[in-house]
């Protein structure tokens, strides 16, 4: 029947997605390939390795306390440093992929123009915060290097090297908002409404 043919031919058409639509749902769409490589391949892997090392040290410290009745002062401090480095290195990537608490229900109900306006506000405020983090981090690192302060435990690490993650994390966090601004300048929504996003 002609009506049946029309319905059956229309059904696959509504379910099929074009490559352009698939690309539009990716967080790194419209950005250079090296940008996505640094975010997804380099930073995420380094942050994951740091977190795994922190978990391994925590397990070692817990086992040492339980089985050998020995405690290592450096373990707690090193775990704290590794976790902070892991979080700050991956914070920008998580922001670019939309992995943070936000009002999805309200944003998804907004028209496209209003969503883009809020994305501009979000990106500019986030970029400003990133600049403040970099400036404060550089000042703190310079101060710690000038006074020659070391960590509390017997690791004896220069504290300025540990706190170097503050300006570095601020730069990486700022790149996330720069990427959003690039997409906004091209008229693209940096965080389109989707059912779910994966790294």
Automatic annotation (TrEMBL):
Record-level GO cellular component terms: plasma membrane
BP terms from Gene Ontology: C4-dicarboxylate transport
Membrane-spanning segments: 42-59, 79-95, 116-139, 159-185
Annotated Tripartite ATP-independent periplasmic transporters DctQ component domain residues: 55-186
Topology relative to the membrane: Multi-pass membrane protein
Keywords, sorted A to Z: Cell inner membrane, Cell membrane, Membrane, Plasmid, Transmembrane, Transmembrane helix, Transport
Region (Disordered): 1-28
Biased composition (Polar residues): 1-18
Compartment(s) of residence: Cell inner membrane
GO MF annotations in UniProt: transmembrane transporter activity
Function: Part of the tripartite ATP-independent periplasmic (TRAP) transport system.
Quaternary state and interactors: The complex comprises the extracytoplasmic solute receptor protein and the two transmembrane proteins.
Family to which the UniProt record says this protein belongs: Belongs to the TRAP transporter small permease family.
Protein name as catalogued: TRAP transporter small permease protein
């Amino acid at each position: 029947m002609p009506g049946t043919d029309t319905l059956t031919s229309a059904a696959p058409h509504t379910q099929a997605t074009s490559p352009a639509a698939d690309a539009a749902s990716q967080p790194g769409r419209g950005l250079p390939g090296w940008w996505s490589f640094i975010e997804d391949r380099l930073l995420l892997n380094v942050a994951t390795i740091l977190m795994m090392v922190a978990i391994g040290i925590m397990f070692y410290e817990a086992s040492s306390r339980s089985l050998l009745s020995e405690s290592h002062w450096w373990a707690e401090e090193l775990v704290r440093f590794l976790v902070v480095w892991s979080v700050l290195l991956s914070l920008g990537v998580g922001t670019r992929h939309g992995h943070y608490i936000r009002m999805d229900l309200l944003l998804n109900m907004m028209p496209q123009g209003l969503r883009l306006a809020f994305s501009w506000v979000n990106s500019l405020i986030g970029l400003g915060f990133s600049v403040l983090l970099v400036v404060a981090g550089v000042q703190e690192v310079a101060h710690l290097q000038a006074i020659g302060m070391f960590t509390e435990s017997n690791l004896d690490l220069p504290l300025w090297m540990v706190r170097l993650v503050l300006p570095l994390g601020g730069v990486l966090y700022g790149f996330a908002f720069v990427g959003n601004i690039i997409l906004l300048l091209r008229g693209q929504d940096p965080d389109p409404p989707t059912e779910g996003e994966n790294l």
